[in-house]
Each structure stands twice: as structure tokens, then as C-alpha cells.
Write a structure and sequence with these properties.
The complex is a heterodimer of chains A (576) and B (90). With 576 residues, chain A is an alpha/beta fold. In chain A, 37% of the residues lie in helices and 16% in strands. Chain A is built from 22 helices and 20 strands. Chain B has helices spanning 22-32, 61-69, 85-89; strands at 8-16, 36-45, 48-57, 74-78. Chain B is globular, with a radius of gyration of 13 Å. The chains are: A alpha/beta (576), B alpha+beta (90). Chains A and B meet through strand 5 of A and helix 1 and helix 2 of B.
């Protein structure tokens, strides 16, 4: 057995049955080992970035580790965006790259780059393996590390000659990789409960950590037992489920008025698995200005990072929330007046969709996503790209669970959605997986249509087509005096945008185009009735903006709203 | 909080695994988290690499310490004010 074959044995032993990769010179020994590895399905993506993002989507949708494989040099550099994406959103991933043979490392040889050096900041850990007997232990350790504590990507770079060298040693981890994380001390739980009971206006703020901790069910139990008004970050969408009556939705730059208002007015903010990202907090000095902060996170480096907490608890969310649930269930929190206030804010300050002016007007982005949400199965998985459509999905699609919503939150990587949808479809072959893309984002990893065709994946693609880079256009309109700069994707005079129907047809994917409200229902039916992959191109009004909005660097209480903003350029002056 | 903070010096004694890139990882994290290295000394110890690090920055030193501690190849990070610092140094 050589080291490459040993990696396959570890995959089988660990239940890793799906990997996403692209072969090349220095990773060939691993691809040779794949030939004899019947239990491991290799998905040939058509660009290494697609491999990493598909592995990310697979991991987020399944809760398992995603595996991405590529060769040295350009293979490794092409992976970087996808790995950074996983790192920023705490997604468990194992990355394996081939490296130039040991004797050539450091000589600027063909397809050689310093993978270890250039990826230090985007991995949870990484290693260049120099001896064959270290390969198995390093892979085992990487898998433990990627999935333990705060999950993240671990990158193992292996020279070609090392992959080919014989091994005999058993492949246990090199060292204990999962640093033990204690359950919360009883005193910490009591202190949280004490602060909750003393608060008159408490708010629960959850993030992506809930799903990463596998704490979805216990989180809902805690929410139900406490009855706390709840807000979530982008990656926390779905945490509360569809039926939680105290849910106020997403906070932050494109959050709901109700969520931002409640956080602004609260006197206690219980932060659970969220990292107070700037898109969520707005101007930090004005974030929850009257609140004591209680912060629970598995990563000590997130506690007190941006704002000192009154009480910071480093602990696994699941046992912490279980303990809190037991405490609040014994004696309910007496905050009914506050709950009523929050419900009123929600009633008048949720995400609104204006009714269409008629059947023949262009469809608005929010109305499209509402209709998509109503037409999709309850357990559909939606993988977004990045931009206006991403925010409309966050605002208007009703998610029942956090693993149903895949979005590039921390990195904000356009091109995420299509490969992520592919990964999610491999994780859940029988569920409906939808990629909601913008006409800009879709082109960034459009080559993955070939992966969809190869594997006959029934991924449903919805292109929200406004013929421009809409989010950039919106901010140029609002904050740069409407001076549009290089945002047209389908030039108004040249009509030079891509023919998405012809593009999809090249990959044997059924397409449908919708331009008016009257056609939307038929278009959605065509999308979901198609037996396999299908693409729905929906032309929306180029002038559509995402509302509400908090200007970058402004306080969340200073939200810009659509109503007085028929002239978008005037919004910043009118609305605050 | 950060904008109004005063730049201060902080000293950390770090024990690292003896592994390629362990020192690189440590010093990169210092820069990435907004601190400047004023002085660094490193020597091999029986169980790894001992790094004596002095940094300056306006952000909280304990936050940097938490970032350094979570690096997989970092065994421990101590500051001279730690109660166990003298004993451990011996």
C-alpha cells in the first residue's frame, strides 16, 4: 500500500463516500488510488473553485465533512476562494493537494507554489507532509480537527513522491486534535438565567453556530421555553423554524425593521453562536446601546472580540442551551409586555412585498422570491450567490431549518451558489435543491453546468436577471451620486448579455424565461415539474433595490426605506 | 472601543509544536489581528519551540491571546502577569 491508497482506506473507514476534485500532475497518485476505491464517489467539477465550493455546500447541507482535492500550483490557487469561504463561515472541510516532488520544492519548479504559506490565514490548520508514514496520521488528524470545536477547513499538501511511497504504519491521528470543550459550568448557566430574569427587554440573537454545533433542536426548545424575541444573522436564518411566534427575522444591513428596532431597544442581548459581524451590527458603538451582552460561543477568540460581554461563556452550544432550557422552563420569563411590543414591530416592520401594479409589469425581486418560496417543497435547499438576490432570499424565503439555506456569509463570494447546490444535491439526492443566482454571479462558476449534466443532477437554477450588478448599482445610486461605473452585464445599447437559454441548452438543461408577473406561475411550475435540471430566467426591474438598508458604517437604527425613496439617490438624505 | 484605545505593548511567552510553519503561523496571526511585532526571540526547547514575543497594538491583548491560543500548533500562551508565569518559565 502506498500513502495515496492509505488515504482511500481512511476515507472508507471514516464513512467519507463523496469527494469533489480535479486531477493534475502532482495529485495523480491519489487519482490512481481512486480507480480502485469503489466506496468513494469522486465528483469531477470543472474548476477547482467549483470543487471547494461544492465540498462546502455538501458539508453545510449534510453536517458532514466536505472533501476537496486538487493538484499543485494552479489547482491549489484555484481552490483558495472556496477554502476561504469555508473558513469564514466555519464549514468543516478537508482539502488535499498534490505538491511538486520533494526534491523540487523551493526550486520554482513547474506548477509549484507555496501552498502552506499562502493559505495560512484561510485554514483552521494546514500541513506540508514530508514523509509517507505521516500521511495517514495527518489525514486522520485533519478530519478530527475540521469537524471538532468550531469547524473549519484543514489543508494537507502532499508531494507527489510522498503520495507514491509505501506505507505500513497504522493511520491514527498524529496527536489529539480536538481540544476538549467543556460543557458550561453550573455557575455560568445560573448567571445567564439570572441576567435573563432581571432583564425587562431581552432579545435572543442566533447565528451560524447553531447549525455548526448540531444544536438546531435544542435551540428551538430553548426559544420555545424562553419565549424570547429572536433575531438572527444571515447564517442563522432558519434557526427558529417557520413557526416561532417571537421571531423577528434577520438583523443588520438588510435586516428587518423589527429585528433592528428590538436590538436597539433591548436591555439584554443573548448572543448564541454569532460573531457580531459588521454587516449584522452596523456601527458597533450604536449596536444594542442599552444592552448587557451575554455571549455564548465555542471559540474563545470570538468572545469580547468586538464588544466586551457582561458575561462570556465558552462552551458547546448544545449542552448550554439544554441547561438553559431546563432553567427557564421551570419559571417562565415575565416579559409579556416586551413580547407584545416586538410583535407589533414585526407586524408593521417585517419584510414587505408590494403588490404588482399589473400582470404586464416587470416582476420585483422580492415578489419572485416569495413566489418561489411558496412553490418550493418545505424541505427544499436553497443555495444563493451573492448580491441583491441573496438578500431577497434572506428576507423573503421561508426557511424551516438552517441547513436549508446555503449562503456565502462571511466571504461574500459571488459564484458560490451553483457549486454549493451541486454539493447539497449529492448530500441529499432526493430533495429539491435550488440555486438562486444573479446574472452576474451565475457566470462566475457557470462551468459547473457540466458537472450537473455529467451526474444528471436535478438542480433547479433561478437566475434573477436585472442585466447588471444590482447591489453595486444600488450602492452607486445611494452613496456615489448615482454615478454608475462598470455594472452593465447586458449593455442597453448592445444587447450583449449571455443567452442563458442557449447556454443551458448546451448542457441539456431545460430552460424557461419569465418577463412579466402573468408568466411567473407558469415559469415556476415548469421549473419544478421538470424531471431533471432546469433553469428559470426571470427578468426583473433593473431599478429594484434591496430595502430596508443600513448605510455602511451607519447605526442599525438609521434604516433607509423604500417608501420615500422614489428617487434612490435622495434616500440617504431623506430616510435617516 | 478600538478606535479610541491607546497603543500598548504586550509580552507573550508561547510554546509551539516543533513543526514547519509553527512560528510563521504565530507571527502572521499577530499582524493579521492588528498588532506590530516589536521583538521576537525563539529557541528550541525539549518539547517544542519557545517564543518570547513583544507586540504593540491598540486592541485588547487578551483577544490576541485567544487568537494565538487557538492555533493548532500552539501549546500555550502566557503573559508575565499570569500567576503561573514564573513557575512555568522555570
Amino acid at each position: 500500500m502506498n500513502a495515496a491508497q492509505q488515504i482511500m482506506e481512511i476515507f472508507k473507514a471514516r464513512g467519507i463516500d463523496t469527494v469533489f476534485g480535479y486531477p493534475g500532475g502532482c495529485i495523480m497518485p491519489l487519482y490512481d488510488a481512486l480507480v480502485d476505491s469503489a466506496g468513494v464517489t469522486h465528483v469531477l467539477c470543472r474548476h477547482e473553485q467549483g470543487c471547494a465550493l461544492a465540498a462546502d455546500g455538501y458539508a453545510r447541507a449534510s453536517g458532514r465533512v466536505g472533501v476537496a482535492i486538487a493538484t499543485s500550483g494552479p489547482g491549489a490557487t484555484n481552490l483558495i476562494t472556496g477554502v476561504a469561504n469555508a473558513h469564514r463561515d466555519s464549514v468543516a472541510m478537508l482539502v488535499i493537494t498534490g505538491q511538486t516532488p520533494s526534491a523540487l520544492i523551493g526550486t520554482d519548479s513547474f506548477q509549484e507554489v507555496d501552498v502552506l504559506g499562502m493559505t495560512l490565514d484561510i485554514v483552521k490548520h494546514s500541513a506540508l507532509i514530508t514523509r509517507a508514514e505521516e500521511v495517514g496520521p495527518a489525514i486522520a488528524e485533519a478530519l478530527d480537527l475540521a469537524t471538532s470545536g468550531r469547524p473549519g477547513p484543514v489543508w494537507i499538501d502532499i508531494p507527489k513522491d510522498v503520495l507514491q511511497a509505501p506505507v505500513s504504519a497504522p493511520a491514527g491521528p498524529r496527536r489529539e486534535s480536538a481540544r476538549p470543550v467543556r460543557a458550561p459550568a453550573s455557575g455560568e448557566v445560573a448567571a445567564i438565567v439570572d441576567l435573563l430574569r432581571r432583564a425587562r427587554r431581552p432579545v435572543l440573537y442566533s447565528g451560524g453556530g447553531v447549525a455548526r454545533a448540531g444544536a438546531e433542536a435544542v435551540f428551538r426548545a430553548f426559544a420555545a421555553a424562553s419565549g424570547l424575541p429572536h433575531v438572527n444573522s444571515l447564517n442563522g436564518i432558519g434557526n427558529a423554524g417557520r413557526g416561532y411566534v417571537e421571531d423577528l427575522g434577520m438583523l443588520g444591513m438588510h435586516g428587518s425593521f423589527a429585528a433592528n428596532r428590538a436590538v436597539d431597544a433591548c436591555d439584554l442581548l443573548l448572543v448564541v453562536g454569532a460573531r457580531l459581524d459588521d454587516r449584522a451590527t452596523g456601527r458597533l458603538d450604536d449596536f444594542a446601546p442599552n444592552a448587557r451582552l451575554v455571549h455564548i460561543d465555542i471559540d474563545a477568540a470570538e468572545l469580547h472580540k468586538l464588544r466586551p460581554a457582561e458575561l462570556a461563556v465558552r462552551a458547546d452550544l448544545a449542552p448550554t442551551l439544554k441547561a438553559l432550557t431546563r432553567c427557564v422552563a421551570k419559571a417562565p420569563l415575565m416579559i409579556e409586555a416586551w413580547r407584545r411590543r416586538c410583535r407589533e414591530w414585526r407586524q408593521h416592520g417585517g419584510f414587505a412585498v408590494a403588490p404588482p401594479a399589473g400582470p404586464d409589469v416587470p416582476i420585483s425581486g422580492p415578489a419572485l422570491i416569495r413566489a418561489l418560496s411558496e412553490a418550493a417543497p418545505d424541505d427544499a435547499i436553497v443555495a444563493c450567490d451573492v448580491g441583491q438576490h441573496q438578500m431577497w432570499v434572506a428576507q423573503h424565503f421561508a426557511f424551516g431549518a438552517p441547513r436549508h439555506h446555503l449562503s456565502s456569509g462571511g466571504l461574500g463570494a459571488m459564484g458560490y451558489g451553483l457549486p454549493a447546490a451541486i454539493g447539497a444535491q449529492f448530500a441529499h439526492p432526493h430533495r429539491t435543491v435550488i440555486n438562486v443566482a444573479g446574472d452576474g454571479s451565475f457566470m462566475m462558476n457557470v462551468q459547473e453546468l457540466a458537472t450537473i449534466r455529467r451526474h444528471r443532477l436535478p438542480v433547479k437554477v433561478v437566475i434573477v436577471d436585472n442585466a447588471c450588478l444590482g447591489m453595486v448599482r444600488q450602492q452607486q445610486a445611494l452613496f456615489y451620486a448615482n454615478r454608475e461605473s462598470h455594472i452593465d452585464l447586458d449593455h442597453i445599447n448592445l444587447d450583449d448579455g449571455p443567452d442563458f437559454a442557449a447556454l443551458a441548452a448546451a448542457f441539456d438543461i431545460q430552460t424557461h424565461r419569465v418577463d412579466r408577473y402573468a408568466e411567473l406561475e407558469t415559469g415556476l411550475r415548469a421549473l419544478f415539474d421538470a424531471p431533471g435540471a432546469a433553469l428559470l430566467q426571470v427578468a426583473i426591474d433593473r431599478a429594484d433595490n434591496v430595502w430596508p438598508m443600513v448605510a455602511p458604517g451607519a447605526a442599525n437604527r438609521d434604516m433607509l426605506h423604500a417608501a420615500p425613496c422614489s428617487n434612490p439617490a435622495a434616500a440617504a438624505e431623506v430616510c435617516p | 472601543m478600538i478606535a479610541n484605545a491607546v497603543v500598548e505593548r504586550h509580552r507573550f511567552i508561547c510554546r509551539l509544536d516543533l513543526e514547519p510553519a509553527a512560528l510563521e503561523r504565530l507571527v502572521q496571526a499577530v499582524r493579521r489581528r492588528g498588532f506590530t511585532i516589536e521583538r521576537v526571540g525563539a529557541e528550541r526547547a525539549s518539547d517544542g519551540l519557545l517564543v518570547d514575543l513583544t507586540v504593540s497594538g491598540a486592541r485588547p491583548a487578551e483577544t490576541l491571546r485567544a487568537h494565538l491560543e487557538k492555533i493548532h500548533t500552539v501549546q500555550s500562551v502566557q503573559r508575565p502577569r499570569d500567576r503561573c508565569f514564573i513557575a512555568d518559565r522555570g
